[in-house]
Write a structure and sequence with these properties.
Blueprint: E1 3-5, E2 12-15, H1 21-32, E3 35-41, H2 47-58, E4 62-65, E5 70-76, E6 88-89, H3 94-104, E7 110-114, H4 125-134, E8 137-141, E9 145-151, E10 159-161, H5 167-177, E11 183-187, H6 195-202, E12 208-210, E13 213-217, E14 226-228, H7 233-245, E15 250-257, H8 264-272, E16 275-284, E17 287-295, E18 303-304, H9 316-323, E19 328-332, H10 345-355, E20 359-363, E21 366-371, E22 379-381, H11 386-397, E23 403-406, H12 418-426
Parallel strand pairs: 2-15, 3-14, 6-7, 10-11, 18-19, 22-23
Antiparallel strand pairs: 1-23, 3-5, 4-5, 7-9, 8-9, 11-13, 12-13, 15-17, 16-17, 19-21, 20-21
Helix pairs in contact: 1-2, 1-3, 1-6, 3-5, 4-5, 7-9, 7-11, 9-11, 11-12
The structure holds shikimate-3-phosphate.
GO molecular function: 3-phosphoshikimate 1-carboxyvinyltransferase activity
Subunit structure: Monomer.
Catalytic activity: 3-phosphoshikimate + phosphoenolpyruvate = 5-O-(1-carboxyvinyl)-3-phosphoshikimate + phosphate
Length: 430
């Protein structure tokens, strides 16, 4: 499905966004292997999270939908999963395949897990290596790509230093650690999102943190919990960005997860000159939550690298769009992880911004953008990547003339209803 958008004269309103995708995946998986029945409210309705639901059902877990965005999960206990018939399908979801592989490595039956053509191009060596060190036997396609065949059981705890900053790898090893003998420790060089640690605690697992190290004991059991998933900051980022770059823009986004390992995009936006206010700060599901007010301002370029990157890694495409509207140079480096996301996001952003007339250079590990430039409407590709489709929908609002985004339906992967909501706030006809 293609989307056509034109420049917006306004951008304002109050909204909420779907439940956080990372927390939704974890809430489903932890509920599935917990003892007792869990209720999850505010679950993301995106296709990625539906892939996790589908895999868990194939593993014998009963998941029933109730009110909108609410599900009840009948936990089967840590060792109650059933051998699935056929292959598990993780769809487009890296979090599904990487986290679930940690759990599958602990099972005494073999499984095969695969995904769509984009997921089948993504590197899984980063989870295969530690899982094999723990004792699992895993086979993959050339280059460590899916489908994966996992022959698990008999795991031993390890101490693992993450070679790349990745919450998916950290979480995979910790989940396998729940099934291992002895203690499992993961050490990071820079902090990645810590939803696994927070949510495991909510499910009654003792998780020890010491600086950038996190450990747990094998044999720990999970107990059912009630989880209210807060709004996804990565989905909110598109609306915050549009408000920041469009003259007179202002949005209020309710009930957002503002975990410091996720919320750096809003800090950078404020540093660039947008107005950003947090209201009603509170805690929900062990996560810091607030309502956020974002308004336009005179923006200046900035430098983004180092330890802050993991906390805004999924927001880099829309940050690059914001940078095209900011005065001076924005330099984003040490971001080569973006090359192995749903698509090569550095290449995709460079290509699309160039087509819109921005001044942008692709670096081996990042992007340089010089602004401000009046963007021109263009024909763009989403590359099947939800965040590329949504980032360039925001760019389209700031452009002169019409922009066509090919295959924009992939926004549903994390944000069903994104385009109607964007149109509503910008006063554009459907
Ligand atoms: C995620 C971790 C990040 C992020 C992804 C979701 C998670 O990936 O990009 O969208 O839920 O743990 P990496 O672990 O590969 O950095």
């Amino acid at each position: 499905m293609n989307e056509i958008l034109s420049g917006a004269k306004k951008f304002s309103g109050r909204l909420s966004v779907p439940g956080d995708k990372s927390i939704s995946h974890r809430a489903l998986m932890f509920s599935a292997v917990a003892r007792g029945t869990s209720v999850i409210r505010g679950l993301s309705g995106g296709r990625d999270v539906a892939s996790t639901t589908g895999c868990l059902r194939s593993l014998g877990v009963e998941i029933s939908a109730g009110e909108p965005d609410t599900v009840t999960v009948r936990g089967v206990g840590k060792n109650g999963l059933r051998r699935p018939v056929g292959e598990l399908d993780a769809g487009n979801s890296g979090t599904t395949i990487r986290l679930l592989s940690g759990i599958l490595a602990g099972q005494d039956f073999p499984t095969r897990i695969s995904g769509d053509r984009y997921l089948c191009q993504r590197p899984m060596g980063r989870i295969i290596e530690p899982l094999e060190r723990m004792g699992a036997r895993i086979s993959a396609q050339a280059g460590g790509k899916p489908p994966l065949t996992i022959d698990g059981g008999g795991l031993e705890g390890i101490r693992y230093s993450l070679p790349v900053a990745s919450a998916q790898v950290k979480s995979c090893v910790l989940l396998a650690g729940l099934y291992a003998r002895g203690r499992t420790t993961v050490a990071e060089k820079v902090a990645s999102r810590d939803h696994t640690e927070r949510l495991l605690s909510l499910f009654g697992v003792e998780v020890r943190k010491a600086g950038l190290e996190v450990s747990l004991e094998g044999g720990a059991e999970l107990e059912a919990a009630e989880v209210r998933v807060p709004g996804d900051p990565s989905s909110a980022a598109f609306f915050a960005a549009a408000a920041a770059i469009l003259s007179g823009g202002e949005v209020r986004i309710d009930n957002l997860c503002l975990n410091p390992t996720r919320a750096a995009f809003f800090e950078v936006l404020e540093k660039m000159g947008a107005s950003v206010k947090r209201m009603n700060e509170r805690s929900q599901a062990g996560e810091p939550v607030a309502d956020l007010l974002v308004g336009s301002g005179k923006l200046t370029g900035c430098r983004v690298d180092g330890a802050i990157l993991p906390s805004l890694i999924d927001e880099v495409p829309v940050l690059a769009v914001v940078a095209s509207q900011a005065e001076g140079l924005t330099r984003i480096c040490e971001a080569s992880e973006l090359r192995v996301k749903e698509t090569d996001r550095l290449k995709a952003v460079h290509e699309n911004l160039t087509r819109m007339g921005a001044v942008v250079r692709e670096l081996p590990d990042g992007l340089e953008i010089e602004g401000p430039v009046r963007l021109k409407g263009a024909r763009l590709e989403s590359y099947g990547d939800h965040r590329i489709a949504m980032a360039f929908a925001v760019a389209a609002l700031a452009a002169e003339g019409e922009t066509l985004i090919e295959d924009a339906g992939c926004a549903d992967i994390s944000f069903p209803g994104f385009f109607p909501l964007l149109r509503e706030l910008s006063g554009l006809a459907r």
